[in-house]
## 1
Amino acid sequence: MRALAFVVTLMNLCWAGGPLLAADADNGRTLAERWCVGCHVVSGEQRKGTDIAPSFASIAERSNFNEEKLAFFLLEPHPVMPSMALSRDEARNLSAYIAEQKRP
Ligand code: HEC
């Protein structure tokens, strides 16, 4: 029983933001600046962009915004967006980065 409790505690520690499992928004930013800037305004500092695609800030502001759903969305090929073949981690990091842009 004690051993089980120990394992459960360990797992809880990991879920609660262990660096190995948590999405990495900083990495998401790097990815966004590499892959997404061509069409999206990906940060508040970016002055120039296109109007063909919504800015990441405006996506984060949507009332139905959901970080997990977005991560799944990013794994699917998008009709307008070229398929970027993101890994699961990359999709989660991007999603976390976009979520950060929601104004508190
Ligand atoms: C070649 C241009 C292009 C690139 C590069 C691109 N996008 Fe897009 N993206 C679009 C366009 C255009 C839309 C709007 C699609 C629509 O309105 O149906 C869009 C829409 C989206 C949406 C919103 C979908 C929705 O629910 O309305 C998200 C989220 C998104 N892109 C994320 C990304 C991310 C993350 C990247 C980088 C990994 C990226 N995009 C790269 C063109 C692009």
## 2
Amino acid sequence: MQNRINKVKESMKAKGIGAFLISKPENQVYLTGFHSSNCQIVITEDENYLLTDFRYIEAAAELAPLYNVVLTDHSITIYTFLKQSGIEKLAIEEEHLSYSEYKQLSEGVICSFQSGGGIVETIRAIKDESELDAIMKAQQIADLGFCHMLDYLKPGLTEKEAAFELEMFLRSHGADALSFDTILVSGVRTSLPHGTPSPKILEKGDFITMDFGCAVDGYRSDMTRTVALGSISAEQRNVYDIVMRAQTAGCNAIRSGLSCREADRVCRDYIADEGLGVFFGHGTGHGVGLEVHEAPTLNTKSDEILKENMVITVEPGIYMPKKFGVRIEDLAIVTASGIINLVKSDKELIIL
Ligand SMILES: [Mn+2]
């Protein structure tokens, strides 16, 4: 934790920030290991403060002496605390401060604001060993879940039933939580990149796309596989192969030093060269950690550069409205020579 806080202080110094209010929950967890629904962190050049209420004070007290823990109540709030501390200029996480909080800060507490957005996220993008370990565990459970679904999926089940089975499996095999609401869509509904499981019945000839993950120690996994039920058409086979080859090309190209935009372009160009570029309308991937979508972003607009020990997804897809869609997503650690692919499930087309 000390090391993480030091990195924040270095970044604050480089940006000319004297005091930084950290209000984004995942950033707070990253800097404290402390989970609560009521927490404010203030980092200054010399001090670290954690403010919380009665419900969490006993657990928070264990963070001393790294943090000066302040008990808040009706009379002592983040606003009275900042006013008393004499902090006049404050960096905030502008994406994670409500208008109401901003108003209370600006009315007689803080004279001027500056942006602290992205400081902690940039540090979080590069994972340490304990973080990689948790993500690997979460992905191992997800791979087992995929394997289980290959036995379980059959015509006659609904998407909702199948999604529930997968979620139960993940939770009963060591997952603390789901990474996000499971996407499990079939047939014509696979053209919806983020469709939610419906009462639609799985039928022979359907593609089934499962995009799912789970969390271990707060760290998430994320993977997608598209499988087929019974037989499929030549067009389905062709589109699947294009997505698989685009996804494989992306995985093969990625290494530290490559720009996120270039990584995206590898997958995008492959699909465009096959004449299907119009059906790939989302980014190629994203960082994964305490959040399922975090820095870096792999898309056409990204200015970020891939670095060693970033954990990212590679997930091109093709979605043909009213017909079908295919997405294949791996989760990988970026290294100097390439990637360590954490997803062990096969990506050759599986026909059940
Ligand atoms: Mn993803």
